[in-house]
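Protocol step 4 of 5: obtain the predicted structure for the target chain.
Materials: sequence only (see below). No template structures provided, no constraints applied. The aim of this step is simply to have a reference model before the mutagenesis design in step 5. Sequence pasted as it appears in the construct record:
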Amino acid sequence: MLRLNKNKAWNRLAVELRWRLMMGWAAAGIIYAPHASAELYFDVSDINESSGNTANIDSFKYGTIPEGTYRVDVYVNQQYFLNQEIDFKNQAGLYGLQPVLTVKEWENMGARSPGLTAEKDKNTKLTDIGRYIPGAAAAFDYNHQKLVITIPQAYLNTRARNSIDPSRWDNGINAFLMSYNINASEGRQRDDDTQSDSLYVNLRPGINLGAWRLRNNSSYTRNVQKFDSVFSNRTRYVTDKWQSLSTYAQRDLVSLKSRLTLGESYTPGDVFESFTFTGVQLASDDNMLPDSLRGFAPVVRGVAATNAQVIVSQNGAIVYQTFVPPGPFALTDILPAANGGELNVSIKEADGSVKNFIQPFASIRGMQREGRVRFSATAGRYRSFYNGADKPAFTQGVAQYGFSNDITFFGGSIVAEKYLALNGGIAKSLGDFGSVSLDTTFASTTLKNDEKKKGQSYRLQYSKSIPDTGSVLSVAGYRYNTSGYYDFAERNQMNITNDDSWQWQYNKRSGLQVSLSQSLSDWGNLSASYYQQNYWNTEGIARTASLNYSKNINQITWNLSLLSSRTPYNPTDNQIAISVQVPLDQWLTGARARYSFSHSDDSGTSNQVSLNGSLPWAKNIDYGIQQGVNSQSHANGGVSGSWRGSAGVLSGGYSYSGDSRLANVGLTGSLVAHKGGVTAGQQIYESGILVHTPGASGISVEDSSNIKTDWNGYAIVPVATAYRANRVKVSPGDVDTDADVSNPLTTVVPTRGALVLAEFETNIGRKALVRLMHNDKAVPFGARVFIDRKQNSKNITMPFYVGDNGDVYLTGLSDNESVSVEWNEGEVTVSCRTNIETGDLSRTRKGIIETRAECR
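Step 4 output (structure tokens):
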């Protein structure tokens, strides 16, 4: 028999410390020896001597905690998997509680073995997983509410790393959503007493129904100008415009890892130029892929002589590690640390020998992993907001195929009544020399006067990343061989009439784009870009060149920017800007001071100083103060502020420049109607989370912008990552509330556009620290206290455990709560009942009642 004795000099411990010690013995080291042969025994004599009553730890002395249902974080081979409620039971021959999981749940974790396959009923519940998966084990860490599952690599399927089984993707609840952005301003010109008022409203209503998402994006603008004229002392000029920007319905097609769109949307821009349309589209959605399969990475191939460990590193960081059986292997789910460079591959054999080789790679836009097919198919009618634009019916198809480890083929077509375009191309990794792609587009166009044009476009792209020096170079060149080449947007918008019509009156001849970023290590960062577009019908060009340098010295940020730009109708404008930003945390928490100088050929010189930050005692309130002067000696400045709350964001400001004055106010947020009521929140951009703490208001959502549950127990988390595990944690904080959250952490995996419900179990009632007495003695340490209550429409029994001196912390109490208590004295179970009256008792600052009760 293994006997654990404590030092006789062990002093009297506080309730929580002693409780954690007992739970630590029961739930930490013991559970990692599931097949130990010695019986574990605790000597409780010291507890008895120090507390004056008989300690009762029968529930723990055999290395287990009480059987039951616990919400835990599940880790599989040290990787976080999910958070959920799991039943735990004792299993003969194993120390510690064992999880009760179905065959399907084990398979969802990636387990595969003949033992699992032999179970025909996937809902069969298993406790001793070692019988079904050799070498597998489950360890319950009660202190951290964590279940650690170990599955040998040989019994794991080949699913990509960090992938989440689509069965866990949550389409969310049915709901009506309305996100809004409202801005209003009033401006005055003092020299001529002109007043300009404006209102902008952007509404994004939507309906979620199962997997379907119905969305609309509309805006309303109103401008009012008031000025004196020769006809009237006060003339009022009003313009109103309501515009529906897009309306569409979408849903996932999980089996194709794609999305179906019906309505008004836009085409992808990876092969042809993107444009808006009204119609139907089916397109791949890379967000559905796990991180380890997104983007381009080479397939690493090799041969292992034994059961070997393969380690892939880049720039000194391990980016992939796995075990492979003897023979050839191919690693397809590597997630590189950079978009090119060298992968260092090490094969560590079972005998200790190591083989190393280097695999260079480079990526360019459009490259796909070997065997990966990315596609889009669109049919509909061209859509434009310009007056005079043609809107022909069309079909478009685009595909990209990862033919091999370093070659991707791609192409597509656009077919319309008076337009045809065919594209074909290839992208190739050149290893240490970067990557390159070349494609050709043939287009046949019939203009409005029935004149027919034909032409070709040749596009060359090059990309090179040098991780050792921090350099990334990307070059894209376009050249049109004949003036008869028109892309689909040019053909449809050449007759528009507005200020931007020059873009469409001249068809493009050649274009060049160059971008370079360079890390200078301790000397900062440098980036540069150049863009030039030439046209067939004019000698004018569109050109933009920029250079940016930034450097951080002792948290002081310096920045230098140079910009030169022109269009065919406007002369060149050269600009320079210099800024320095200094943190002021030593004097004013969260504050930053900034000075900036700028000069432009068009607008002259300007000097600005500003102070920005958030209030030290209210981090959800931001402020800004600016003051400056320009080359015309006109002073300018202003103040601004914003408040972020659970129901939205309110902002406002006042500014002046010379004789001009402008005041503005803004409000952004969202409203969600669901079966639980109507909830106000911050703007929902795509996927969101609806937090629910039944009956509990004022509960904070951690890691959020001052979001708390409302009077109905709901709150909106406006941002969630689709197809990824999003952890949601709530905390009552310092709120004096009668609510207690049973488990404050949960995990949700929303689909794109979903509003997922994250519901937490709450105990509503008084919180009390009760000293339980029985026959004038404190109830023994470890005794169990039971309260019957209803939770989520179910009758459940909540267990609590007595600490030192008969003290027990209870939550969810009514004014007069009946509780039962039981413990073991030798072979005899002792039980008693008592009523705990809390209605007229005062509370501590934390809202806790301290009282005592006699158990009979």
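Step 4 remarks: The mean pLDDT is 80. Helices lie at 15-27, 45-51, 103-108, 114-118, 488-493, 502-505.
Proceed to step 5.
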